[in-house]
Amino acid sequence: MNSKTSLRKGVFFPAFLLVLGAGVVGLVNNKLLINCFQAVFNWSYVNLSWMYQFIMAALFVLCCLLLFSRKGDIRIGGKDAKPKYSFWTWFAMSLTGGIGASIVSSGVSQPITFLESVWGELEGYGIEPGSSEAVLFALGRTFHEWAFFPYAFYGVCGVLIAYVCYNKKKPLTISSTLSPLFGDKASRPGVAALVDMSAVLALALAIVGTLGTFIGLVTSCLKQVYGLTVGAPVMFAVMAVTTVVYLLSSLSGVDKGIKFFARLNFKFYMLLLLVVALLGGSLAWILNAGTSSLGYWLQNLPLWTFDTGTAGGENLIKWWTIYNWTFWMAFAPVTGVFLAQLSYGHTIREVLIVNWIMPSLFAVVWFSIFGGCAIDWQLSGVVDLAAVMQENGTYAAIWSFIRQLPLSAVLVPVTLFVMLISFSTSADNSVTVISALCMRGRRIGDEAPAPVKIAWGVAIGLLSFLLMAYASGGKGNDGVRYMVVSIGSVFSILIILQIAAAVKVFFFPSRSEDEADISQ
To answer: How far apart are CA 516 and CA 74, in angstroms?
Structure first.
């Protein structure tokens, strides 16, 4: 590395040592580690739920304003910029780079959890588990927490980073997104290092969460389907193999690794949707339930948008809504760097359609088919998925579901493979971006040196293994949830500043900036 592309020690070492330190503490005293994360989790729910809900509402409104205003005509990179990827390759990379393996399992587990109020999710709203309204709530609430609201994170962060870095020619740093608010002060070494270090730490811990989810899914499959005894050695082996896979992809670069995995991943998503739609429950019932639930979501949108637990209760808002919002919050700013890289040559309106609208519609279709089929089977007595989750944790539901499909002996390993490439695609782009942010003199799209990527991959793998092996809890991933919510809670400050920066740069620019935007 030359002087122009040297390691940003103020970013890399604090973030890396905090992740590694958490792993060491977890190895020596995992209860202490989880108690710390749990304390932050509980405090953030009690004191910050109102703020998280307002953040989500602001992001949603901001996406709408950018999509339908004349700002949507601005081309990322300037009027002469040309897109690097074809439309469907762009969409596949954008979609699969941001969701990971959890959508596959959540397609079954989350709607069933809501339907049967497995951990008391319906108590706040007084809905009878298994009732007709519970069906509408199960799918409608899942749409709320997986579609237009959470993807607004990626929409705003991706557009803001792309615009600031490509159109305003700012350096590839998260701190650059704050320049509309603070000018050159945002680029001061100390400030930039603190902001970027926080962003790198947030995403690194979020990847720990997704890898922990994948470890839980694989080990649950080995236990439920193949009857194997699962312990720490097996979890460690799953972690090691998965880490090697996504690191090999990351080391091959965006145009090879991520692009290849994204295309393959998207094709398998479509295959799984087709299989469940054609071989699962009654397709007409599934589509009717999904359509009605969409209306139920719209009907309850105002209350759900601002409910902090007063109406919905702690079991729903704390363990699902607030957890989900903070999880996306931890991912969004740095994932926005990856999405910005793909956005070059497209207008802001096109970027929002691909990063916000289309993934949200995909989520609605995905949960309608997977969740609708699972609900149909639960109500008709084909399989008691709620009981499976209560006995074996949330990860077990997807395997009991897949085993009810024809050709399940083939579909189980296919689903495992889909989960592997789903996680690999998401972790691949994340490790690539956080590694690049640890380097000085890198432009958007540049690759970081292999040793930096490998260091991050090993540290992330170690911590995820410790959390899943020794702190999984009753739901199967309690330790992961505590950790992600903790970092997302701290990171909410940056999200608020980025929202303010987006409002300033797009809707209250100086006259010269406004004229420049029109010319683009």
So the answer is: 10
